[in-house]
Amino acid sequence: MNKTPLPRQFALDLSHTPPASLNNYLPGKDLALVDALRKSISRWQDPEHNHNTNALDQRWIYWWGPQGSGRSHLLKAISNAAADLGLAYFSLTPNEPISWVNLEEKIVGLSQDTRPSVITVDDVDQLDDRQVAALFRILNSVQASQEIYIFMAGSAAPNHLHLREDLRTRLGWGLIFQTQLLNDDEKIQALETAARDRGLMLSPEVLPWLLNRFYRDMPNLMALLDALDAYSLETKRAVTLPLVRELLQSGKNTA
């Protein structure tokens, strides 16, 4: 099936998309995971939360699933929630070695803090040996603290990751969830919700056509939705199939 490439101009619209949050995530089969994350955020919002309820499985969550299943969106949503509440947070990925150094330097201070602090780690399965060693030490510090929350995501369940055995074991100390890809009906539901949030009216045939002709992953579909919103306002026309084809064609011509 011929998939229309993403026109270059759409990349500009990515910077204007709403920031990742739990509210703009369609959970599909991930309701239990989203509920656990909402409970974590609720604890941060309550300065009088009881330390005795901060068991490790309430501060330590790992989830895994295929690419495009929302793994990174949820980590970004957690980081954004921490930032909105003014909490210290660290977002670690395999491609950001400086952040790992900074966090290891600050972890002792974080463990003594009376306010919650948040660590997210994406693509755990892609960590190099040095980062694996750093994460091992970080997890030991999180275990010894009552106020550090850590959220991690990877491509496979802990026991199937090609990592050190002691790290794989530790990944399973908290809660573990599997993220699921949305089916086509769920993607359409998510896009319809996003369109309503933008006050955008779509002809019924638009979304099924996009799923057959355009990218099927949600970030690109959401980017296209934002581009359609802007183009509809600019041309003062409803979002119909001819308008979609026109925008895609103009993007190809300018790319």
In short, what is this structure?
It is built from 11 helices and 5 strands. The protein has helices at 8-14, 31-45, 56-59, 71-84, 97-112, 129-144, 165-171, 184-197, 206-213, 218-235, 241-254, and strands spanning 60-64, 88-92, 117-121, 148-154, 175-178.
From the structure above, extract its key features.
disordered N terminus; 5-stranded parallel sheet
Your description of this structure?
The protein is of the alpha/beta class and 255 residues long. 52% of the residues lie in helices and 10% in strands. It is built from eleven helices and five strands. The protein has helices at 8-14, 31-45, 56-59, 71-84, 97-112, 129-144, 165-171, 184-197, 206-213, 218-235, 241-254; strands at residues 60-64, 88-92, 117-121, 148-154, 175-178. The protein has a five-stranded parallel beta sheet, sandwiched between helices. α5 (97-112) packs parallel to α6 (129-144), α6 (129-144) packs across α7 and α8 (184-197) runs parallel beside α10 (218-235). Mean pLDDT is 84; it is low at 1-15.
